[in-house]
Every structure is written in structure tokens, then in C-alpha cells.
Amino acid sequence: MSGNAQSAAGGMTEYIQHHLHHLEWRVGPGSFWVINIDTVVVTLLLITLFLGVFLTSARKATAGVPGRFQAFVEMVVGTVDELVRETFHGSSKLIAPLSLTIFVLIFLMNFIDLVPVDFLPWLGREAGLHYLRVVPTADLNTTLGMSLTVFLLIQYFGLKHKGPGLFFKEMFTAPFHVHGTLGKILLAPVNLLLRLIEEAVRPISLSLRLFGNMYAGELIFILIAVLTLGGSLTHGAAYAFGPVQLVVDFAWTAFHILVITLQAFIFMMLTIVYLSMAAEQH
């Protein structure tokens, strides 16, 4: 490998690793407890933006002909509310606000991935931050945290709608239900094992699905940016790679808009379905 090629390969590897590294805060001695500061700060900013926009829209809402922004917010709220009514068969004042929060917040987290890949890290360097990774849903800690919260809500809804007696009884009598005391005793361990597996799979699948899609999307944007990085290191190839990078980046951005919306919608719908299943009596 020539010296220029080696330099290009080293520059690309360093570039990718840098963009996939979090701004970390290590708590205490050792490296076990690590907080990704960039993920936490960006998430809090997006939560503030979400609450500020929707609360302001609610306070300024008029009974007459709504403006464009109010009409947009009402459309989002109405669509989510209709989906909840069609999917959740129980009675709860929490489901619709929870579903709206999940969809909008995850969409905003995903949308950060459409910001040019070097722009926010450049702002971070100008502010004295060596690392800055800004897509919260590309961090497994974020998606797993949201999924575990949904998992706890599932248990809460089950206990609330069924009562402790029926809730724990179903763990030993479903999905396989037979008549007779002996059959119930024999199948109880099998039912309990299947129930535990089912409950464990839900948060894992929710978190990994969202994380995997967003991590892959972030990585593809980085690899597209590497096209001209490699070209500049090999003296002149950037002029050839530039138009290719522009076309590929535009195509992937258009496709990724669908991905980020779909992933927010899937997370919201699965949450509604899981909570509806938890509230139903078998």
C-alpha cells in the first residue's frame, strides 16, 4: 500500500471512530459507570423543545379557523388519538398523551441524524468539546431506557386492570390452559417460563430495533462523508467523488426521512399494543 493510501485509510478510520465516540463522564474510579453527556444534554434539549412547542400551541389554540402551525399540531394529536382508540380497548387517560410523547420525542431524536454529519461536531470543537455525538437514539442507553420504561408500564397496567390475583394467576395458566388441577400444576412451570421469556423479549426487541436502524443510518452518513475525505488525502480525487457524494447523500437523506418516521411510529404502536394486551383479561 502506498504512503498516500495508508494515510487515507488511517484518516478514514480515525474519522469514523471520532464520530462514533461519545462525550463521556466517568463516575468514580475505573470505567464501569460512564454517562454519555452528549446524549443526555441533547435529549433534555429535545424534551424542552417538545414541551415548549406543544404547550405554547395548546395555550394559543383558538376555537375558530386554526393557523397552519395549530392545524399541524392538531393533526398530529388527532391522528395519535385515533390510533389509540382503535388499538387500546381498555380505559385510560394516560395512553394517548404517552403515545404522543413517544412518537414526537423519538421522531425529534431521529431527526437530528439529518443534520450534516460534521456540523454539530464542529460546533462542539469550537466550544472546546473534543467529542460530540448527537443522535440520542443511536445510543443503546437511550433506547434501552425507553424500552424498560415501557416494560414497567406494561406491568403497571396489568396489575391495575386485572388486580394482583388475576395478574399473577395468568403467569401460571396462560398461554396453555387446561381443565383439572393436575394438568394446571404440570403446565404451570412451562407457562411461567414462556411468560418470562415473552416479557423479557419485549423491551429487548423494542430497544434493539430502534437502536439498530438509527446506528446504521448514522454510520452510513459518516461513510458517505468519508468519500471526499479519502479523495482529499489522495490529492485530487475529491473532484471525482464530490458529485457522487452529493447524489448518494441526497438519496440516503430522502430514504432516511421515511426510516426515522417509521421507527418512531413502530415504537409508539408496539407500546400501545403491549399496553392493550396487558389490560386484557385472558
Describe the structure.
- The protein has 282 residues and is mostly helical.
- The protein contains 8 helices and 2 strands, in the order αββααααααα.
- The protein has one domain.
- Strands 1-2 form a two-stranded antiparallel sheet.
- A hairpin with a 7-residue loop joins β1 and β2.
- α3 packs across α4, α4 packs antiparallel against α8 and α6 packs parallel to α8.
- The N and C termini lie far apart (66 Å).
- The longest helix is centred in the C-terminal third of the chain and has 53 residues.
In brief, what are we looking at here?
The protein has one domain. The chain has eight helices and two strands, in the order αββααααααα.
Which characteristics define this entry?
single chain; 282 residues; mainly alpha; disordered N terminus
Q: What order do the helices and strands come in, and which of them pair?
A:
Elements: H1 3-19, E1 24-26, E2 34-36, H2 37-59, H3 68-87, H4 95-111, H5 119-126, H6 140-173, H7 181-233, H8 238-279
Antiparallel strand pairs: 1-2
Helix pairs in contact: 1-7, 2-4, 3-4, 4-8, 6-7, 6-8, 7-8
Radius of gyration: 24 Å
Average pLDDT value?
85
Main β sheet profile: 2 strands, antiparallel
Number of DSSP-assigned strands: 2
What is the helix fraction of residues, given as a range?
over 70%
Strand content: under 5%
Total number of domains: 1
From the N-terminal CA to the C-terminal CA, the straight-line distance is 66 Å
Strand adjacency order, main sheet: 1-2
Specify the overall morphology. globular
Q: Could you list the spans in which at least 5 consecutive residues all have pLDDT below 50?
A: 1-8
Structural class estimated from helices and strands? mainly alpha
Tally of individual helices: 8
Question: What is the string of SSEs from the N terminus onward?
Answer: HEEHHHHHHH
